[in-house]
Amino acid sequence: MSALDKMWISFGSMAFMFLAIIIIYLSRYKFNNKILKFVTALIAYLFMILAGIIILFVVLSGPTPG
Question: How much is the pTM?
């Protein structure tokens, strides 16, 4: 995997983190329905966990051969 591939993968992970922040904000402050709050919070936390796993993969895969 090249360095540019890792860069794009890490950008995707940052996008997941940004989406998680927006969704958690909506879940906590904008929605009144308990079920909708739970579902959106669950989705946001899944995005955050997935982002963490992706970043862990990028970091632990080491430097690229060059």
Answer: 0.85
